[in-house]
């Protein structure tokens, strides 16, 4: 049996960030991951995740703005290109309630934004042609993160600060013992940990099965297309663009092409049995949407992959202490919009472990709010 001060269970976006911040705070910390690090079976893989401050609630705008300098710090420390600030363009029909709600919230925040007409958008981004009866909002201090690189940068920086990483080790059971997490049984042996952070993504409800967390896992897919025109070459030609009526969104050229996806909730699934067959109807709808948005181009489908959202009933996150075991911290239920915050969430979880409190307003994310 290995004795460890602190164990992080699951090394996707949230676990890798937590490991990094704990190691930076000079904690002796071990991270456990059931697959190889950077794998494609969870929720954090791929070339891009939107980094936006345009939100339905100023709390998320405030948290996103606070996260940006942390990404820039990690980018500098790792020497990796992690964040691309190409801006975020949201648009919706004249009476789109979701768009209106987000616009009201951004007006109440301190974030920089610009309201644009469809004509303004085409002036600024000649490739884009929004529907005539639409309104748009551009936030310049936004863009996208290179997802897999962010995870790997957190892990390699954590290791430089002394963290240990165990890959291909599955946690099979946690035997809680009062305040302490007790014994963590894994596929290669047991660990006795003083403190445990559970960041198991779509497996969170399984790992903490006694809590009966109301989490729903859905199957989501992302599609890469390549434009025929030579003009769309790099991340600066386009912002990240999101249609608040269809819930389709897309990115500039990055990695294998232009990534587009549907933010609507897919079929409910379980992470161990997910069907990864590519949905041809979604592919066709996204291709049609892309063609209408950028009528000067044609787009060839290139590749697609499958990912999962882990949703709470209110789509707010779960961050905080286990209600019965104070030395167990949980970060889960990121409801399809957590990646951008992951380095801040790692910091918050590390503060809860080391300092037993955090200055960040996390009351709304309490685990027992659904009891
Ligand atoms: C298609 C798609 C698009 C998205 N777009 C955006 C976006 O644009 N912007 C944004 O901010 N967010 C976005 N998100 C959401 C964001 O990617 C997720 O919120 C985030 O990646 C969740 O990270 P996680 O660490 O909680 O989960 P995961 O990445 O799934 O990590 C959990 C890890 O725990 C490991 N694990 C689980 N159980 C065990 C066990 N028993 N033993 C050992 N290891 C275990 C898993 O193998 C996994 O590696 C998107 C998500 C998807 C699927």
Number of strands: 19
Tally the helices: 8
Q: What kind of assembly state do the chains in view correspond to? A: single chain
CATH architecture of the largest domain: 3-Layer(bba) Sandwich
Mean pLDDT: 95
Strand residue percentage: 25-35%
CATH topology title of the largest domain:
FAD/NAD(P)-binding domain
Q: Give the distance, in angstroms, between the N- and C-terminal Cα atoms.
A: 35 Å
H/E topology pattern: EHEEHEEHEHEEHEEEEHEEEEHEEEH
Descriptive key words:
globular, 8-stranded mixed beta sheet, FAD/NAD(P)-binding domain, D-Amino Acid Oxidase, Chain A, domain 2, binds flavin-adenine dinucleotide, alpha+beta, 8 helices
Describe this protein's structure.
- The protein starts with a strand and ends in a 17-residue tail after the last helix.
- The protein folds into two domains: 2-45 and 148-215 and 314-370, FAD/NAD(P)-binding domain; 87-141 and 218-307, D-Amino Acid Oxidase, subunit A, domain 2 (D-Amino Acid Oxidase, Chain A, domain 2).
- With 371 residues, it is of the alpha+beta class.
- Helix 1 packs parallel to helix 5.
- The longest helix has 21 residues, at 58-78.
- It has helices at residues 13-24, 58-78, 97-108, 118-124, 147-160, 204-207, 280-293, 342-354; strands at residues 2-9, 29-32, 49-51, 83-84, 88-93, 114-116, 134-139, 143-145, 164-166, 171-177, 180-186, 189-198, 216-227, 240-243, 248-254, 257-262, 299-311, 318-321, 328-332.
- The chain binds flavin-adenine dinucleotide (FAD).
């Amino acid at each position: 049996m290995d004795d460890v001060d602190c164990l992080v269970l699951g090394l996707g976006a949230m676990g890798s960030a937590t490991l990094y911040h704990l190691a930076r705070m000079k904690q002796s910390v071990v991270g456990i991951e059931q697959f190889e690090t950077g794998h494609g079976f969870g929720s954090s893989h791929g070339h891009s995740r939107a980094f936006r401050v345009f939100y339905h609630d100023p709390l998320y705008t405030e948290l996103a703005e606070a996260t940006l300098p942390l990404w820039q710090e990690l980018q500098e420390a790792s020497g990796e290109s992690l964040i691309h600030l190409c801006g975020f363009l949201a648009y919706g029909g004249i009476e789109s309630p979701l768009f209106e709600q987000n616009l009201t919230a951004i007006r109440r925040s301190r974030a920089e934004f610009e309201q644009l007409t469809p004509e303004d958008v085409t002036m600024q981004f000649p490739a884009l042609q929004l529907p005539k009866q639409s309104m748009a909002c551009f936030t310049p201090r936004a863009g996208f993160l290179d997802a897999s690189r962010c995870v790997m940068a957190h892990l390699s920086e954590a290791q430089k600060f002394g963290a240990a990483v165990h890959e291909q080790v599955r946690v099979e059971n946690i035997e809680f013992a009062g305040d302490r997490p007790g014994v963590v049984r894994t596929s290669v042996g047991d660990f006795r940990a003083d403190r445990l952070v559970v960041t198991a993504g779509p497996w969170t409800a399984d790992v903490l099965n006694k809590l009966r967390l109301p989490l729903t896992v859905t199957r989501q897919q992302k599609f890469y297309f390549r434009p025929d025109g030579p003009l769309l070459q790099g991340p600066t030609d386009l912002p990240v663009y999101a249609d608040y009526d269809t819930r389709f969104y897309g990115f500039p050229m990055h990695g294998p092409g232009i990534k587009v996806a549907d933010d609507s909730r897919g079929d409910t699934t379980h992470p161990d049995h997910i069907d990864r067959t590519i949905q041809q109807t979604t592919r066709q709808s996204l291709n049609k949407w892309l063609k209408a948005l950028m009528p000067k181009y044609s787009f060839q489908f290139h590749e697609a992959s499958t990912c999962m959202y882990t949703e709470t009933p209110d789509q707010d996150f779960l961050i905080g202490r286990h209600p019965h075991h104070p030395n167990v911290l949980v970060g889960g239920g990121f409801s399809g919009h957590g990646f951008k915050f992951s380095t801040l969430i790692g910091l918050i979880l590390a503060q809860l472990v080391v300092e037993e409190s955090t200055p960040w307003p996390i009351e709304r994310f309490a685990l027992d709010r659904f009891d």
